[in-house]
Amino acid sequence: MAEVVHMIDSEVFLAFSTYATFVILKMMLMSFMTSYFRLTRKVFANLEDTALVKSEEDKKKLVRIDPDVERVRRCHQNDLENVVPFVLIGLLYALTGPDLRTALLHFRVFVGARFFHTVAYLTPLPQPCRALAFLVGIITTISMAYRVLRTAFYL
Amino acid sequence: MAEVVHMIDSEVFLAFSTYATFVILKMMLMSFMTSYFRLTRKVFANLEDTALVKSEEDKKKLVRIDPDVERVRRCHQNDLENVVPFVLIGLLYALTGPDLRTALLHFRVFVGARFFHTVAYLTPLPQPCRALAFLVGIITTISMAYRVLRTAFYL
Amino acid sequence: MAEVVHMIDSEVFLAFSTYATFVILKMMLMSFMTSYFRLTRKVFANLEDTALVKSEEDKKKLVRIDPDVERVRRCHQNDLENVVPFVLIGLLYALTGPDLRTALLHFRVFVGARFFHTVAYLTPLPQPCRALAFLVGIITTISMAYRVLRTAFYL
Question: Which reaction does it catalyse (chains A, B, C) (predicted)?
């Protein structure tokens, strides 16, 4: 019993909470970047949104697709596909009571890889920068999933 | 120890569970709305799906893009990008043992803002209705993230 | 107090951790399938990604849309829209202390339905195979949400 409570109150759980919050906030930042690009470049997905900018142009022409907006959106989508699994598996991982140093290594590598992934996607840096950042993130999550399965396996 | 257990068993955690479940169910409802629009308007993303409606028309012509279906899908995507971070950060926030009234305020404002966001997106209401609903949701989540970081900060 | 701790340490929570991890890993597998299709069919979303394949063709022509890649991506998106709600609601559900057999039934049906959904989407199997797999998954999640609301209702 004390062991379980220790897990939630532990430094591992505090560290998980900190890194998870940072990487979720980073993911949410992509929404603002999309909005910023849409407003400054006048590229909208909905006709009613064109009212947000003063423009002499025909409103309907502002509802279009822009390569830079699509790039930010793909980056956001990639975050959804990778950060959410990290946080969900990381939560279960933190509850398995891993060694603090090992846990910190996982959290730091993942969060670092995802921040670099965003830079690599938006600059864009030449490949395989982004591909490697993506792979490092995935491998970290799989490594945590492996520990969860090894510890909690119950089918 | 008793403190941590109190957190999970607390009214804050019960309230979190209730509001999180409501807003996730609302998000899942968007899947049904997409299916409804696809079936009634005969607009499909996959050739095999055209078998779901009896139609005299050429099946291939039913695989196309429809502005109303895309609007529902963008609304669903916006939910994924905002509701999932709310639930993940809200879970960590509920474990930091916040004041019940403050916590309820956060949960109610977020859930209210997201329900209004959906109405504003699908009606559609004139801007900046939707933009404000989106912002209120984001700010609520950031406010909870701030408390998580202040309480659990461990890098 | 002992009751709450029992919930996290219980067989229900272990089972939840196992099934949730499996279905999240399955969802992450879709990223690799997308990459595999993009690399083998030389279909890219970003100009810089074309450097990942040796190709005589004009690089710009490789940035295009391919029906098979889009199919994998829709399948991945459907996973995001369904697996993430399952894991989030399932976590709260596991903390309500359900009967082990009932909980296992929910987890097994959901995970089975989603694996079948992926097979049905990518083969593709004739409808309504995929529609039924999707529905079974949604109903399982709603059934868990119902128990969470019945147990933890606090507005």
Answer: RX + glutathione = an S-substituted glutathione + a halide anion + H(+)
